[in-house]
């Protein structure tokens, strides 16, 4: 037998004597529990063989004892059933078979897998670590992959499994980067960076981590830049540019930006474009000076939803539109139309950041309306209302100024009321006393302008009372309507000095009376000029009337009209004379010139009837000449007929004759165009038709 399974503790000194029977001893190895908690499945068997000792001469040493025994002695003592050969045959058959079956079962039974969570890793073998690392890595999560790397990374570099371990480490590092890239593609940049940087720095896969992170950051930065540029264009309402920029996200090497963010940006642009149109319309309405239009603009701006990109812009415009309405209300308030101003302001919808200004305007508006009643009680009520404005408000200083003004006005109103009471009696003394009372109001006081107006009115009343007798006496004197009476009335009215209340009325009376005097004085001269004109001496009449026309006196306009009429009559006579002289020549051109000259005579002139008769006569002569010319020169006859003026008795006949002559000389157009000249075209050359 060989020494293959002999235990190391065995030694020749412990060998037994020759009388010891050879036996097979199975010594199991001390069982050890692996760190995974699973007991070892393998056992060692020691085959203890009976060694044959040889003597120094190479002879076998008998292992039998000196004591001998006989087999028959033993068999004789056995029971009878044990002596049956059948029994022994069965036993010899079953026992080896059972032993073989058990042995094969033991050999074929696979060892159980280690329980990785319960392994005590400091005592675990490399194969167990690698096995558990592979199990962890198969789950394909970042934590499990890192656990797998940790299990095998610390094994010695000279370990027999190092090559396989390094291959797994590189593969697991790539798996971690792949999972990190999935996070990056789903939009979790920070998670992707943090995940990739969990790869241990001493691994080969760590070398590409920073390169990958740099690539991610560059892609992300480019995508964000595109996104922000698109939003910038959107803020400027450049819709087309925003759409073009957003399409660049489709070419970004990141699913999150190319899908989620791209869709999000497009929704923003579409919504912003619709809302932008609403804002454009709102701004257009707000430019109007109509309260209803500005209110409609506010409603449009309020319709922009909070998730719109232009929501903030719309919210900024709402107070702007509100202030425009406030300005319209202020314009009404400046015209002292407090009721309309307050009505406008109360239509402004609730605007949180603008409500305080509206409230302050209403308070001051109510106060001003009370103050404008012009009574002491109204001013006191106005002061009480204005004092409600808190010192923290922007209009506080304005309210304080109004309060100070109204306090002064209370004093002024008291004086004005007293003065008006005095002036109501209407006598010079009371009016003078009223003026003195009002003049005590300083020019710097709020009611100083009103006081001046009252003073001027009351002074006018005093002056009217003082000067009315002069005007009444002048009117009585002028009733005689002769030169001396009128001149006396003028002298009486001139006693009213310039700047007095009745001075404008007095001047009007003086102008009327002066015109009557001038008319009485100049009328004989104008009548004499008309008599001269009727006698036919128009030039002398013009010279006489021209003296009155250039004087600037009452009859100057009438005299100038007469002069213009007489001058027009002279021109008409000259034109009538010259026309007859020209017509004597008898040529078509002369007759046409005669007609033109005589037609200058005005319809108001007595010669117009003679001019019309002459025009008809000369027109008939032209028509007869044209008809005579048609016998030898149709074109010339047409030209002559065209000289007959519109409105003359021969004009209609001339036009019909012209149409007839044109039909005679203009060839008809052939129904089918032809490149060859027609017989009519040969008969009537183009030069004739051109002359027509």
Strand content: under 5%
Question: Can you give the mean pLDDT?
Answer: 75
**Global structural class:** mainly alpha
How many alpha or pi helices? 27
Distance between the first and last residues' Cα: 153 Å
Q: Biggest sheet, in brief?
A: none
Rg, rounded, reads: 68 Å
Categorize the overall geometry: elongated
Q: pLDDT below 50 for ≥5 consecutive residues: which ranges?
A: 1-69, 108-112, 670-692
What helical percentage do the residues reach? 55-70%
What string, H for helix and E for strand, traces the elements in order? Answer: HHHHHHHHHHHHHHHHHHHHHHHHHHH
How many DSSP-defined strands? Answer: 0
Question: Could you name the key traits of this structure?
Answer:
692 residues; 27 helices; elongated; disordered N terminus; disordered C terminus
Short description:
With 692 residues, the protein is mostly helical. The protein contains 27 helices and no strands. The longest helix has 32 residues, at 255-286.
